[in-house]
Amino acid sequence: MGDGWEACTQGGSLVMARGITHIISVIDWKFAGDSPLIRGYQHFHIPIEDNDDENLIEWFPKSNAFIERGLNDWQHDFQDPGANASEDGDAGRNSGVLVHCAMGKSRSATVVIAYLLWHSHRQNPSASSALTPQHNPAPKKSRDTTPDKSDTLTPETALALLRESRPIAEPNDGFMEQLHLYHSMGCPDTIDSQPKYQRWLYQKNIQESLAINRAPEVDNIRFEDEHEEENEDAGTSAEKRHLDIKCRKCRRLLAKSSFLVDHQPTSLSSSNQNQRHERQKQKQKQTVMGVDTEKECAHLFLHPLSWMKGNLEKGELDGRLICPNQKCGANVGKFAWQGMQCSCGGWVTPGFGLARGRVDEVAMLTKTAYGASAVAGVRLPPGMRREVGHL
């Protein structure tokens, strides 16, 4: 790893002395055709700025392949439109790869960490299969962790490993989030078709639209029911409970529980938590079919679904959700691209909420562990719905 100024000013003499054969430039810079950083070397250019909202993850598969080729099989031509093969100077050199940006701190560090994650996954795929289903935002300052090289690396342990040779390495928050996303996907060789990546792009599109105070174009909205096969769990269970959510007026199916968006209540202060704990101790709870009957959220939050297109094509930032049954037309909820606050205090952004008082939640229970048929199509009374819907 290195910084761009050092690489550009000292050029060929510096990289040649270190046995470099391949160079990745992660910088928004136009390189002249006779640049010493290109002439005589395999060169791969990633033209991005060091900004949180830059899409660097889309380059990971190509940069990983380029680094792998440079370290192990550099004599062969790297077949990629972004890599420029040199006609002079490769013979007799030791293989080596230089990854640089402007300061050698954020962009280049991210590319190297992505390679370390990918390589670690290839070396230990069984451990990588146990990755957390959803990536978590990285802390602003990474923990000082000594990685166990026998285990599959995580973004934090890979960063700690990199800092052993490059102490100033510090990917920005957006790049660290993308490393977590890449890690959660299992470090694939292609990412364009990955559902998690598609959702990340969708969220990125929403943020860009809201930044200019506009709602996303309908053609750019990801409607989850159009990607239902991607969202199904790979494994099967002998017993699986879910909900059908229907319009209370006409019984038209509006959503399944697989389209629900989970959210967290606003965190309480310690004093409020103690008061709530005392109230809960005094309150006798009733349960039916193992479902807690405590007071529930006033809305069921959903991913955008295709029946909402008529409500969203107007381009409004917020509005009502109308039952798609033309003979019904009931107001079943509301939406707000900027986000909605639930009655529990939690925020969901973007917010697509069905009012619980205007829909019915029908519990559907498949075969039990003993193979017997379970209750299906049961309308739950008020207060018995939260845990069944996994909210």
Automatic annotation (TrEMBL):
The active site is at residue 101. It comes from the Eukaryota. It is an enzyme of class 3 (hydrolase). Residues 141-151 have a biased composition (Basic and acidic residues). Residues 126-154, 264-289 are annotated as: Disordered. PROSITE patterns: TYR_PHOSPHATASE_1, TYR_PHOSPHATASE_2, TYR_PHOSPHATASE_DUAL. One of its GO terms (molecular function) is protein tyrosine phosphatase activity. Gene3D superfamilies: Protein tyrosine phosphatase superfamily (3.90.190.10). Its EC number is 3.1.3.48. Residues 126-135, 264-274 have a biased composition (Polar residues). One of its GO terms (cellular component) is nucleus. This is protein-tyrosine-phosphatase. The lineage of its organism: Eukaryota, Fungi, Dikarya, Ascomycota, Pezizomycotina.
